[in-house]
Amino acid sequence: MLIRPCARLVGVGFGHGVECCRKLLFENAIGDFPPNLSRWPGTCWIVSQIPEGAGGEKAMPESAGGEQRVLVRTDQEKRTRAVRAEPLVGWAWIGWFGCLLALAGLFDFALGWYPLRFGVPEWEFGTVVSTYSGLPLITMGFAALLGAGLARGTRWLLWVMAIGMALFAAFLLVMLLLFLTDVPLALRAVDGVALLGIKKAVVKTLVLGLLFPVAYIAGAVAAVRHVRKGKGGVTV
After folding, report:
1. Cβ(106)–Cβ(168) below 8 Å
2. Following CA atoms 22, 23, 29, 35 in sequence, which dihedral angle do they give, to the nearest 10 degrees?
3. How confident is the model at residue 10 (pLDDT cuts 50, 70, 90)?
4. DSSP helix/strand/coil, 44
């Protein structure tokens, strides 16, 4: 008797295959058959009764004349390495790490502004430059929180992000205007190699001062629109 795996039932109908299995298991038990096939889950097994040829040698049947019995494992499907997707849980974790990034960036931002020394051009110039240089960290945190709020439909988080980003964008624009008033004094105060550094800082601050506030305002508008359209399904 030959046992070989097959990807599908070959030439045997479903009803006939079930009948063959029944007869094979309950009427034609031979020794310790059936063997342990659990090592090959989800495999279709064809059990063939090999006829004897000339000289007592056994040969594979070349046609449908040889008796074939089919044993199909249906107790479990083929296992895969995939796990169940949890997009809401994933976005929740992104939100938590975004909150961590935002708090770290805001803490560094607060240290840069303390103690306040408005009216001193050198302090205003340097503080605004350092503030804009640290915006990428804060922005990544804001983006993660906004994405988590949109994905999970958390209404209160969307409102917090909309108001917070709008206020922060307004603050950055005011600081940019303050910075522009100090630029002429900074350019006149230095020369040579230091002047080139001041010019680079001015260009960098101007570019960041235009990009980040626009991005914050766009995110705030998106959050407000999402809330007003009532698309939030999750409120936790």
Report:
1. no
2. -50
3. very low
4. strand
- Under the banding of pLDDT at 50, 70 and 90, the label for residue 30 is very low
Q: Does 74 have pLDDT greater than 60?
A: no
Element (H, E) at 188: helix 155-189
Are 99 and 206 in a shared domain?
Answer: yes
Beta-bridge partner residues of 48: 2, 68
Query: Alpha-carbon distance 163 to 166, whole Å?
Result: 5
CA distance linking residue 49 with residue 102, whole number of Å: 72
Same domain, 46 and 102: no
Q: Domain for residue 56, yes or no?
A: yes
Q: Answer positive or negative: Cα dihedral of 178, 184, 187, 190.
A: negative
Domain that holds residue 101: 87-228
Q: What distance, in Å, lies between the first and last C-alpha atoms of the chain? A: 63
Q: Are residues 98 and 188 in the same domain?
A: yes
Rounded CA separation 214/223 (Å)? 14
Q: What are the backbone dihedrals phi and psi of residue 205, each rounded to the nearest 5 degrees, phi first?
A: -65, -40
78 within some domain:
no
Q: What is the pTM of this model?
A: 0.61
Between 40 and 193, the more confident residue is 193
Strand boundaries in the chain, DSSP class E: 2-6, 44-48, 68-72
Whether residue 236 is contained in a domain is answered as no
